[in-house]
Amino acid sequence: MRAGPVAPLVGMAEVRQGKWREASKSRFVVGSHVWVEDPDEAWMDGLVEEINENDLVVNCTSGKKVTINVGSAYPKDTESPRGGVEDMTRLAYLHEPGVLQNLKSRYALNEIYDLHSQLPFLSHKCDCADGEHVVTAAN
Q1: What are the two backbone dihedrals, phi and then psi, of residue 43, each rounded to the nearest 5 degrees?
Q2: For 100-106, what is the mean pLDDT?
């Protein structure tokens, strides 16, 4: 069992309001692995290339280079298993991009059950025409 720091699970509204900006300023350095929000991809991962006051220049693995406010970036767990973890309380960073990446990894392996504390999540596999997949909390 690996222990690590746990970031608060916050939404983008709180980040945009600046509530987490001060805490996040000190956690990134050049070379940090981060998640950044993208309107097309939802979340992209990348490396911090530059830090300019309150902005980060991030070279994303998709090939895009973006400049974002430091409060809009989330740390990426580089030691997370490729297949994700069954119990999401074991994630080093419990934030939206980390949870979604874990669900995506588990879904790809057809390991569709995940736990978040005592609440199991079920990601339904389907051949939906619209490409949407359902994630539900099971009792």
Answers
A1: -135, 140
A2: 90
Q: Which residues pair with 68 in a beta bridge?
A: 56
12-75 belongs to which CATH class?
Answer: mainly beta
The answer to whether residues 101 and 88 touch, using CB atoms and an 8 Å cutoff, is no
Residue ranges covered by each domain of the chain: 12-75, 88-137
The answer, as to whether pTM is greater than 0.90, is no
For residue 80, give every residue at least 6 positions away whose Cβ sits within 8 Å of its Cβ, in sequence order, or none: 91, 92, 98, 101, 102
Work out the angle at residue 11's Cα, subtended by the Cα atoms of residues 50 and 51, and round it to the nearest 5 degrees.
Answer: 10
pLDDT in tens, 28-81: 999 999 999 999 889 999 999 999 989 999 999 999 999 999 999 999 999 988
